[in-house]
């Protein structure tokens, strides 16, 4: 609790100091902390039209007043004179899309009070507003009102912090208007008015009484000629004249969230639990929350229990009584089927006869009703029953709301709506099927039909069946390459805008002509490098790779051992801490690889030129050099900054052909043969230690060289040279992890992979036991690896690969972390069976590797480590951002492949082999290895739904097919399916549709 002392002391230099008294409680003991808060009168107002503040600061050598951002001739509108805008917190939080994209927000002042509130409530929006402030284009400025003696206000004892902040913003507006009226250069410029933009009616009324010109966002938009277009972008507020979202005749009421005090108390005494909610992709009314201290995930069933939670929200849940614990649903339930008749103008409109409907079978409708009503209590005698503790959402800690991509649902509109330009309500179906439809209001219904659009969510009122949002912008026609690519980048939060001038200014001035200096003694740091240009170094990468991170060499030593070197691009020579280039790399955190393009973490000049270990040119590198014996045992390891000259850049296939060519006996080729033999031994050591050999259905899409259209899909083939590179990269990462941890025990950047909970494999083991009489052991990674090796079906060579794919999905995700966050036993990487691990070998495309390079450089005494990489809190934030960006990059890459596979199959219908991997009571899921796709086949397309019998214990579904012949399919069955590309009306994405043959 903070108590402010309004007494002031004046210093001779014009500073005023006041006191803030904090009462801090720790372990029941209260202590008083007094902090001084300095106020001053010489903070410039930032206006170029102010004669007084121009005298406070001196111009730069070129005569520019760099601190004066606001134009001397700001915007003037009919009915509103030249003016500056002052934004309040909620305007920024809710209308950031409008502020960024529209052409009406110029000469904007953001009080420091507002900026701090935004930072506390939404850091992503804070970074977006800071980007606008740094940009010269829109003239945004921050005024530090909390340090200005005429703007600072004290908090009254009976006043909430929110009320104090509102008063501080109004105080600034009053001072700013008076200041401009007094000191503006009236001989050259028209008077400038201060306009306070605020959507809180009470705050606006107080502002008007205090003589401040205050407008709501809706009122301000009305001054512009294109107001009708702009109003689509306005978030929905209760005091907005056109907002009738909450005026439904039939209201649905969700449970109230618990108060903050009740949530905090419940979390403290362990009656409530916190976690991330994951909504099932097959049942939109079912979710799970994993809680670290609980052995089983918590099951959330039903609309009321989910209580307006979005997939990915951080929620607080309350455990239900044990007699209400249930098992996950065995039924596919899709939002667009269950809620087919909902009307965007009314939350409860099953009786709306004008709406288009989606026809569903009577059997499916009965199943839906049955599933919604039944208790789902597990039969204790059923071996396949998995009882989970159930819970309900009682609070939202952090929303996973972001810009969402979708399209207007044609089922939610009346064709007559397209004939007028009046404001109409409609549903937007999002690309992610686990998310609910969002209701928006728009005047552009006609032009937005058939387009990919971006929306933002404003709220989800307690009495609304659906969340409410607003239109942001259109991406283009559905299925166009440009629109679909931008959609998936937005959907997964990938930063794809061009690098800013500030970032590009950090690059070497010589550009592409930069070269390694000839005189290595000219620079103290370069002098420390080891010259390895005599080593026969080469790189081995995928075909067409231009951002070459790594290269290798091997040579026989006089003592009979091998010198093996892994040489990594020295990115940190060019990317220095605390620069705009470093900040951009840290924010992006990873490069993103799509089928048709690459979104770089670092500018092209670095990634594909100056840092890339291209052949035949000198390059700076960071080298890890081992002395290995013939059995690949490490005798010694050395770390050094170096200079190399790669002899050749091979693709995996080229390197394999060269190694296999017995007639080729040159020294470089023999070095690669030695690397291959040593890598085989290294891999065997890992497997013997319990390393897992898992799998995923990876495919490659080939593009036509002339048209760039997708032409065919093939399963990726792995060669021995793939494993060669992988083994030495793993060895380098392990060695570097040990070195940086030995020097930085609290802040070393590492990567861990936790033991999978046994419950993750429960269902898979039940399926294996029933269908194959097999079992996966989970005592440790070695037991798991051995049991996977033993799960072989002599009649089906692919079965073992299929099982490894399914096992991969039961594993936890690996994550980046800093060493001070866990005890040493928790550092281990379960999948690799090593006690410590990091990423060091790809700094061009991963920011974790950049940090590891800096820490290794400090560990070997090459250069000192910046304080940011020695600060535990800052490093923890860096690791969290890298984890998020890395995960999203993987999803974006898969989504790109999925899109192009759909395009390839558009005109290539074929019969393929597939495997049943999931069984539901009203459908099955089949994986087709050739295309790497899996798809749901609903019961109604399998045959007669009325004839279906679901055997949950044996994971079987029986039915009569279209020829009235009884058929039974079970999990792990090998089936033949007709594969064709269809347009999914729900997501407007082209997808693989499978028909059982």
Overview of the molecule:
- The chain is an alpha+beta fold and 997 residues long.
- The chain has 6 domains: 2-39, no CATH class; 53-219, Rossmann fold; 260-478, OB fold (Dihydrolipoamide Acetyltransferase, E2P) (Beta Barrel), CATH 2.40.50; 501-749 and 831-896, no CATH class; 755-811, no CATH class; 909-996, Nucleic acid-binding proteins (OB fold (Dihydrolipoamide Acetyltransferase, E2P)).
- The longest helix is centred in the C-terminal third of the chain and has 33 residues, at 872-904.
- It has 26 helices and 39 strands.
Question: How are the elements arranged and paired?
Answer:
Elements: E1 2-10, E2 16-26, E3 29-39, E4 83-87, H1 89-101, E5 108-111, H2 112-121, H3 123-134, E6 140-143, H4 161-183, E7 193-197, H5 201-209, E8 213-215, H6 217-221, H7 227-230, H8 260-268, E9 272-279, E10 286-289, E11 298-301, H9 303-306, E12 314-319, H10 335-338, H11 362-373, E13 391-398, E14 404-408, E15 424-430, E16 438-442, H12 445-448, E17 451-459, E18 468-477, H13 481-491, H14 501-504, H15 524-527, E19 530-531, E20 538-541, E21 550-556, E22 562-569, H16 580-588, E23 592-593, E24 598-599, H17 604-610, E25 618-628, E26 634-645, E27 648-651, H18 652-660, H19 667-689, E28 699-703, E29 710-715, H20 720-743, E30 749-752, H21 762-772, H22 781-790, H23 799-808, E31 815-818, H24 847-859, H25 872-904, E32 910-920, E33 923-928, E34 933-938, H26 939-942, E35 944-951, E36 956-960, E37 966-970, E38 974-984, E39 989-996
Parallel strand pairs: 4-5, 4-7, 5-6, 7-8, 19-26, 20-27
Antiparallel strand pairs: 1-2, 2-3, 9-10, 9-12, 10-11, 12-13, 14-15, 14-17, 15-16, 17-18, 21-22, 22-25, 23-24, 25-26, 28-29, 30-31, 32-33, 32-38, 33-34, 35-36, 36-37, 38-39
Helix pairs in contact: 1-2, 1-3, 2-3, 13-25, 19-20, 20-24
């Amino acid at each position: 609790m903070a108590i402010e002392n309004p007494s002031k002391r004046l210093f001779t230099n014009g500073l005023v100091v006041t006191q803030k008294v904090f009462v801090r409680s720790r372990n029941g003991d209260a202590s008083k902390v007094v902090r001084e808060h300095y106020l001053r009168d010489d903070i410039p107002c930032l206006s170029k039209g102010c004669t007084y503040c121009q005298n406070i600061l001196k111009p730069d050598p070129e005569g520019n007043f760099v601190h004066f951002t606001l134009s001397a001739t700001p915007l003037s509108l009919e009915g509103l004179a030249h003016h500056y805008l002052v934004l309040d917190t909620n305007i920024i939080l809710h209308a950031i899309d409008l502020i960024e994209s529209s052409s009406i927000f110029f000469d904007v002042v953001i009080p420091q009070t507002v900026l701090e509130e935004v930072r506390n409530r939404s850091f992503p929006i804070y970074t977006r507003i800071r980007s606008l402030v740094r940009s010269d284009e829109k003239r945004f400025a921050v005024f530090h009102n909390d340090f200005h003696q005429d703007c600072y206000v004290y908090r009254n004892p009976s006043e909430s912090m929110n009320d104090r902040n509102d008063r501080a913003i109004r105080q600034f507006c009053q001072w700013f208007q008076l200041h401009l009226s007094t000191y503006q250069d009236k001989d050259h410029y028209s008077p400038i008015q201060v306009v306070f933009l605020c959507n809180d009616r009470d705050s606006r009324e107080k502002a008007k009484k205090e003589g401040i010109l205050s407008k709501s966002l809706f009122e301000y938009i009305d001054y512009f000629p294109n107001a009708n277009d702009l109003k689509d972008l306005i978030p929905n507020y209760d005091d907005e004249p056109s907002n009738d979202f909450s005026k439904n005749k039939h209201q649905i009421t969700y449970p109230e969230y618990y108060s903050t005090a009740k949530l905090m108390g419940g979390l403290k005494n362990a009656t409530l639990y916190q976690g991330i909610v994951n909504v099932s992709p097959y049942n939109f009314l079912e979710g799970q929350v994993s809680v670290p201290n609980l052995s089983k995930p918590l099951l959330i069933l039903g609309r009321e229990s989910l209580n307006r939670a979005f997939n990915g929200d951080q929620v607080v849940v309350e455990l239900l009584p044990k007699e209400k614990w249930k098992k996950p649903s065995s039924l596919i339930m899709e939002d667009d089927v269950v809620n087919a008749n909902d009307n965007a103008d009314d939350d409860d409109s099953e009786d709306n006869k004008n709406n288009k409907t989606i026809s569903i079978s009577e059997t499916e409708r009965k199943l839906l009703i049955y599933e919604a009503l039944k208790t789902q209590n597990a039969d204790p005698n059923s071996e396949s029953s998995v009882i989970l503790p159930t819970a309900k959402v009682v609070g939202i800690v952090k929303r996973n709301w972001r810009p969402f991509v979708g399209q207007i649902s044609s089922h939610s509109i009346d064709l007559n709506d397209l004939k007028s330009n009046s404001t109409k309500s409609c549903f937007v179906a999002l690309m992610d099927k686990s998310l609910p439809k969002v209701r928006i209001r728009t005047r552009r219904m006609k032009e937005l039909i058939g387009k990919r659009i971006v929306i933002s969510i404003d709220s989800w009122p307690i009495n609304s069946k659906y969340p409410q949002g607003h239109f942001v912008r259109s991406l283009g026609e559905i299925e166009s390459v440009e629109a679909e690519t931008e959609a998936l980048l937005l959907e997964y939060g990938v930063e794809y805008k061009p690098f800013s001038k500030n970032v590009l200014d950090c690059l070497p001035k010589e550009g592409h002509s930069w070269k390694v200096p000839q005189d290595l003694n000219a620079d103290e740091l370069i002098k420390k490098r080891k010259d390895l240009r005599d080593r026969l170094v080469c790189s081995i990468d995928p075909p067409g790779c231009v951002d070459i991170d790594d290269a290798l060499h091997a040579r026989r030593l006089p003592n009979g051992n091998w010198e093996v070197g892994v040489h990594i691009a020295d990115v940190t020579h060019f990317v220095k801490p605390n620069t705009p280039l470093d900040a951009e790399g840290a924010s992006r955190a990873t490069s993103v690889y799509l089928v048709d393009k690459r979104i770089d973490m670092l500018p092209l000049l670095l990634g594909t030129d100056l840092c890339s270990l291209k052949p035949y040119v000198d390059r700076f590198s960071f080298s890890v050099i081992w002395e290995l014996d013939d059995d690949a045992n490490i005798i010694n390891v050395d770390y050094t900054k170096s200079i190399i000259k790669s002899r050749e850049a091979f693709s995996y296939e080229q390197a394999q052909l060269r190694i296999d060519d017995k007639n080729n006996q040159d020294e470089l080729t023999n070095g690669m043969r030695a690397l291959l033999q040593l890598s085989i031994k290294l891999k065997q050591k890992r497997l013997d230690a319990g390393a897992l050999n898992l799998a995923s259905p990876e495919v490659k899409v080939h593009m036509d060289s002339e048209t760039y259209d997708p032409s065919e899909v093939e399963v990726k083939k792995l060669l021995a040279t793939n494993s060669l590179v992988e083994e030495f990269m793993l060895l380098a990462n392990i060695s570097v992890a040990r070195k940086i941890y030995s020097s930085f025990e609290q802040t070393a950047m590492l990567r861990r992979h936790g033991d999978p909970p046994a419950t993750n494999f429960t269902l898979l083991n039940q399926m294996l036991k029933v269908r194959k009489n097999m079992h996966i052991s989970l005592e440790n990674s070695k037991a798991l690896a051995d049991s996977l090796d033993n799960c072989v079906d002599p009649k089906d060579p692919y079965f073992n690969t299929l099982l490894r794919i399914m096992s991969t999905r039961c594993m936890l995700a690996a994550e980046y972390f800093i060493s001070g966050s866990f005890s040493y036993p928790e550092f281990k990487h379960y999948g690799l069976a090593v006690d410590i691990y990091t990423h060091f070998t790809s700094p061009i495309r991963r920011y974790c590797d950049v940090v590891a390079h800096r820490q290794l450089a400090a560990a070997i005494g090459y250069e000192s480590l910046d304080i940011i990489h020695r600060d535990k809190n800052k490093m923890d934030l860096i690791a969290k951002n890298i984890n998020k960006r890395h995960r999203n990059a993987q999803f974006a890459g898969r989504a790109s492949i999925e899109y192009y596979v759909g395009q390839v199959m558009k005109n290539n219908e074929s019969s393929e082999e597939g495997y049943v991997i999931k069984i539901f009571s009203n459908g099955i899921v089949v994986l087709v290895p050739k295309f790497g796709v899996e798809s749901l086949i609903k019961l109604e397309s399998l045959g007669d739904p009325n004839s279906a019998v679901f055997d949950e214990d044996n994971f079987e579904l029986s039915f009569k097919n279209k020829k009235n012949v009884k058929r039974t399919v079970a999990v792990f069955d090998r089936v033949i399916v007709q594969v064709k590309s269809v347009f999914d009306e729900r997501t407007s994405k082209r997808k693989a549709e499978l028909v059982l043959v």
